[in-house]
Write a structure and sequence with these properties.
Distance between the termini: 33 Å
Shape: globular
Order of helices and strands: HHHHHHHHHHH
Structural class: mainly alpha
Largest sheet: none
Length: 276
């Protein structure tokens, strides 16, 4: 069973990777986009704060280089967005192409198909992250410490699981709502506001700060960045933050899988799984 699941998951991931290879320019554009986006708040901060902008940022955040802080936040937000929406986009594409019903006729569990799609998305996102981060290091002349870079990558791997739980919840919404473009745009703007990609969530108004702490992506984004800088944990000590992320990792995938399976059964009994 484990071998069969691994074979199906890997086959699905490789098939989608082969499709991605047809458009290498898109990969470069996706790698350059977070880098360009990170420059906007940096230039805006310099325009508002003038010569004292960097000094004020260090006093507020405890980080010497705001460019590196914003770059990492933007990269992590971009990767988070990919994890959150990838499964839902796949469900929608399969609906529109008329192949979702055919997928359900395959003699393999749907969870394996979703896992293969998730694996492809993760591999693509991590490559984009590494390429864009390398470009940012060269552009901003960032000095790296190997142990902190490895800690950051480990945190990214660890915190991806709860985010995929949210991704399955989003796929469930797409399965039920069919067209979820408005929902995607609304959630993307909300995620951009709450995760604190360009600023610490401490600067948010109290109500938004509490809302940000309820959003799992806030914890994963902040933890990866805190691992890189060696400071800035939301609960002061790394093990408290890790406990929260571990709780998300235990609960969210189970919740997502349960609701997705329930939505599948209702649709199969009613209008059909591929209707849109």
């Amino acid at each position: 069973m484990i071998f069969a699941a691994g074979h199906v998951i890997l086959t699905v991931a490789l098939a989608q990777l082969r499709l991605s290879r047809r458009y290498p320019g898109l990969l470069l554009v996706d790698a350059a986009r977070p880098l360009m986006m990170s420059l906007v708040p940096v230039f805006l901060g310099r325009a508002l704060g003038g010569a004292d902008a960097y000094r004020a940022f260090k006093a507020q955040v405890g980080v010497d280089d705001p460019r590196c802080y914003v770059l990492l936040g933007t990269l992590l937000l971009s990767m988070t967005s990919g994890v959150l929406w990838n499964l839902g986009f796949w469900v929608r594409r399969e609906m529109q192409s008329g192949t979702l019903t055919a997928n359900y006729l395959c003699p393999v569990p749907r969870a394996w198909l979703l896992a293969g799609t998730a694996l492809h998305g993760f591999l693509r996102d991590i490559v984009i992250f590494l390429v864009s981060f390398a470009m940012g290091v060269l552009l901003f002349r960032i000095e790296l410490q190997s142990t902190r870079v490895l800690s950051m990558l480990a945190l990214i791997l660890f915190s991806t699981l709860p985010l995929y739980g949210l991704g399955v919840l989003y796929a469930t919404a797409v399965l039920r709502l069919k067209e979820a473009r408005a929902l995607t745009m609304s959630l993307q703007w909300l995620a951009t506001l709450l995760v604190g990609a360009s600023y610490p969530i401490a600067v948010l108004p109290r109500a938004l700060r509490y809302l940000a702490l309820l959003f799992p992506a806030t914890w994963s984004t902040n933890a990866a960045r805190a691992a890189f800088f060696g400071a800035g944990w939301l609960l002061d000590h790394w093990y408290f933050d890790m406990a929260i992320i571990a709780l998300h990792a235990l609960c969210l995938p189970v919740l997502g899988a349960t609701l997705f399976t329930s939505a599948e059964r209702k649709l199969l009994r009613g209008e059909g799984i591929g209707a849109f």
